[in-house]
Amino acid sequence: MPSAETAAPAAAALASPGATGRPAAPDPLPLSVVIPVRNEAPNIAPLVAEIEAALAGIGHEIVYVDDGSSDGTVAALRAVAAGAPVRFLRHRASCGQSAAIVTGVKAARGIWIATLDGDGQNDPADIPRLLARAQREAGAGGGAILVAGHRVTRRDSWVKRRSSRIANRVRARLLKDNTPDTGCGLKVFPRALFLELPHFDHMHRFLPALVLRQGGRVVSEPVNHRPRTRGASNYGTLDRLAVSLFDLVGVAWLQRRWKRPAVEAGE
Questions:
Q1: What confidence tens digit (pLDDT) does each residue in 229-243 have?
Q2: Which architecture does CATH list for 10-256?
């Protein structure tokens, strides 16, 4: 599988504002909502409508990255882009969720990024609250900040909830990222901060630890979680858990192999 670092060359056509007939958005925008998707055609229009309702009054764009879908996802994206501030890119072949997020953040024009899963289980109504928290924390002078959603009441199968609980405990003990739910797709952070992080497959599961490694701060906010009502999950439970264990060791190695310098101005 291609790494997140090599995902950009795999991106095919960018549906630019010119291609969709919409005028270019001002640069930069306050917020870009980045959504990685694969085979989520029935969820595109309902989710865009919810995002637009939630972000009324907030300058924003929606950046979808289609990760090599084989259904009607691209057609659905073209349809919504005609009536909403939606842009999209497409990976010619699937490169994974992290690669799609990297592609989307690089293309985004927002100062702040909100990531959101494309299956409709994250609630866009939570985005303004997480954004406000991030802006307050940043305004208090505490440095770079990531606000992570915490799905207090999970609407998943028992197996998925149990495996996530175990993974979160092991990860928290090893990485000390002080985050109860790193698997929640809903997060808000500065675009500039994300671009400084190391990019690799499955990095999206370890964003809190990577932000802490970079000298930033992480806070969690309770968010709504909803059952999937359309389409099918693109991720298995056991294979995801196995890969996460290897990634966990790698991220722990990254933490120990980096010393953050204290930089002072020269004479």
A1: 786 666 544 445 555
A2: Alpha-Beta Complex (3.90)
